[in-house]
Amino acid sequence: EENGKIVERPHPDGAIQQFPKCLIIGVRKCGTRALLEFLDLHTGIQSAYHEVHFFDDDKNYNQGLEWYRKSMPYSLPNQITLEKTPRYFISHGVPYRIKRLNSDMKIIVSLRHPTIRVISDYTQIYYNKLMKNETPDKFETMALDPETGDLNMRYKALQISVYHHNFARWLKIFPRNQIHIVDGDNLIVDPVSEIRKIEKFLGLSHEITYDKLYFNTTRGFYCMRVNSTMEKCLGASKGRRHPDIDPNLIQRFNKFFRPHNEKLFKMLNRRFPWS
Ligand code: A3P
Predict the structure, then answer these.
(1) Could you tell me if 239 and 116 are in contact, meaning their C-beta atoms sit under 8 angstroms apart?
(2) What is the CATH number of the domain that holds 22?
(3) What total number of domains does the chain contain?
């Protein structure tokens, strides 16, 4: 888009702009950027680098499907276009809208330990405030109800980590085998094994190996070998140190999430090493 107008560019090598065949729908702070960029290393995949917010934002959705298609990167006809917008996971009405575009859409959801996800979410908002020269709230202020001292059920970050609430809506619209779940904690320590499962899910050959991803000791995370001369890590906002949180409060979160985790495991027919 340039000056508010959609510009048609020449089509290099017969490449075209195609609707995504696969969406990373969330969950926020569970490694969605790492997934998108790592998968883009695959010759069978072309990732849209920005979050398009098509299905969750009425302003965009009302622009229509051609607007969405033209927001996609150029790709070869046999490549899979991949888009990620983590807000899709928590937005009502989105599963239905996606189904209307393509009932075969492949859906990827990454999950992390729910308490760690809350703290990661808090950390992001903390830094966003600092960048705007605002004073961030203390974690306790966000996480606890000031009157009762109980966990604050209205805290958005807490609500998002009750994964089964949102998952139930997706499973009403999409069959379980069309949704692939990534272990976002494992993605940090063993990305190739998580990516390999996605390659299989998408019917692609196994290309993303530890030649393409290497552990960067300075960053403390895996980074990409884009080609023989270029290495790339995710942006500085990914993998920041989390503030120290009172261990008692962490325990309270863990305890709160435990029954919700069990509901999720049952819903997904899969366990995670969280509880
Ligand atoms: P933290 O910043 O809390 O550590 P998202 O992209 O969905 O916002 O997720 C951000 C999280 O991705 C980061 O959370 C980080 O832990 C995780 N992550 C996974 N693999 C990563 C990688 N190779 N480099 C940086 N962050 C990575």
Answers:
(1) no
(2) 3.40.50.300
(3) 1
Strands (E), 59-135: 74-75, 80-84, 106-111
User: Is the backbone of residue 4 left (phi > 0), alpha (psi -120 to 50) or beta?
Assistant: left
Of residues 275 and 123, more confidence is placed in: 123
Mean pLDDT score, 150-174: 98
4 falls within a domain: no
> With a 6 A CB cut-off, is 170 part of the ligand 1 pocket?
no
For the packed helices 247-268 and 163-173, what is the interaxial angle rounded to 10 degrees?
A: 20
Mean pLDDT of 93-98: 98
Q: Whose CA is nearest to atom 18 of ligand 1?
A: 31
The finding on whether 240 has its CB within 6 A of some atom of ligand 1 is: yes
Domain of residue 100, residue span: 12-268
The reply to whether ligand 1 has any atom less than 6 angstroms from the CB of 41 is no
Substitution candidate for ligand 1 out of 28, 29, 112 with most atoms within 8 A of CB: 29
Q: So what's the pLDDT on residue 12?
A: 66
> What is the per-residue DSSP string for 120-141?
HHHHHHHHHHHHTTPPPPPHHH
Give the pLDDT band (50/70/90) at residue 275.
Answer: confident
Kindly state if the Cβ of 188 falls inside 6 Å of ligand 1. yes
Distance, CA 240 to ligand 1 centroid (Å)? 8
The response to whether residue 113 sits with its C-beta less than 6 Å from ligand 1 reads no
**pLDDT (0 to 100) of residue 11:** 73
pLDDT surpasses 70 at 270: yes
**Is 200 inside any structural domain?**
yes
Ligand 1 contacts CB of residue 120 (under 6 A): yes
**ipTM tops the 0.95 cut:** yes
pLDDT in tens, 2-27: 566 656 666 768 899 999 999 999 99
At CA 112, angle to CA 252 and CA 156, rounded to 5? 60
